[in-house]
Specification:
The protein is mainly alpha-helical. The protein has seven helices and three strands. It has two domains: 69 residues, no CATH class; 62 residues, no CATH class. Helix content is 62%, strand content 6%.
Length: 144
């Protein structure tokens, strides 16, 4: 008795389940490799496994893994010490005689976050964590 041919959507779903939803996604008509950001020929399972063995795919997987390790390291280092960006922002505002409460202006916050690509801290964060440190450093600089 011949095998029943699976519908395209069922075949795509089975590939996503077999190889992982972190690797592939589908929209019922195409199979998309998330690592390589390309559509994969899904006529036969062989084509999908061949894609997984390509040099481009293996390099993309390796790159994503390295990026996740680096981002985890950045998260750990930034959570354990104060942010250089926050300190520099606080120092710049104070040296330019710009009140820290200007950071509560939504338009100014969105401008800063758009063009720096960083999360802009609240004024209370700067006031509590950085103003005193900057004061001490400035005082030491004046003494020397």
């Amino acid at each position: 008795m011949p095998k029943d041919k699976l519908s395209l959507a069922r075949r795509l779903r089975s590939y996503v389940q077999e190889f992982g939803s972190d690797t592939f996604s589908h929209d019922s008509s195409i199979l998309f490799c998330k690592y390589c950001e390309i559509k994969v020929n899904c006529e036969k399972k062989f084509n999908v496994t061949q894609h997984l063995k390509t040099d481009k795919h293996t390099k993309a997987v390796k790159r994503k893994q390295e990026e996740s390790v680096i981002s985890q390291q950045k998260f750990l280092t930034h959570s354990s010490k104060k942010s250089c960006f926050n300190k520099d922002l606080c120092q710049a505002l104070l040296s330019a005689n710009i009140p820290l409460n200007k950071l509560s202006n939504n338009r100014f916050r969105s401008f800063l976050s758009t063009y720096t690509g960083k999360e802009i801290p609240m004024e209370s964060t700067l006031r509590q964590g950085y103003v005193h440190v900057i004061y001490i450093e400035t005082k030491e600089k004046i003494k020397s």
